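Attaching the record inline, Q. Sequence:
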Amino acid sequence: MTVEKDVYEISPDGGELAIKVTASSDYQISVDKNWLAVGDKTNESASFTVAANLSIFERETTVRFNLSGIVCEAVIRQPGQSLSIPAESSGMESDAPALAAKMNVGWNLGNSLEATSGESASETLWGNPKTTKALIDAVKNAGFNAIRIPCAWNAYIEDPAMYKIQDAWLARVREVVGYAVDNGMYAILNIHWDGG
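Structure, as predicted:
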């Protein structure tokens, strides 16, 4: 049994992946990640569905093909989401003092994204309303051009061994930061306490 390549790359958005195989009879496929699902297989190919990678970090897994003890492996790599913002709109062409000088009046979101309490962690846990685009729009319209966003990560770790943060939480933080960036504001993402 053989596979066409050792390594396969797929878009952060996920999708379908086909791996060409050469097998003389039925074989087994093993995968150990829930973001990769096995589809149809023949003696010439195996198909997979790859979920979107919502984090900013690359992920990979090894798929094992086993035909009567003959094992072939293929690595699937999927980059994370890009956080790139064009330099002309980010202010990142400035050094630190010049960038700080562009921040005229700042506003503090408060501890909405920092509210933690084990499994009951949520954005509204401490009585703050869920952060909305309308709220950040109002802050911008009031004359603020910078926003501090305190954020916790510890209560949103889904894999303690790897300190992997839940994709849904990363997406939510990115969404709130996006409310500020879309308004042309400076967003300061601040890890402030996070369990001490």
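DSSP finds four helices and 13 strands in the chain. Residues 58 and 79 are 4 Å apart (CA to CA).

More tomorrow.
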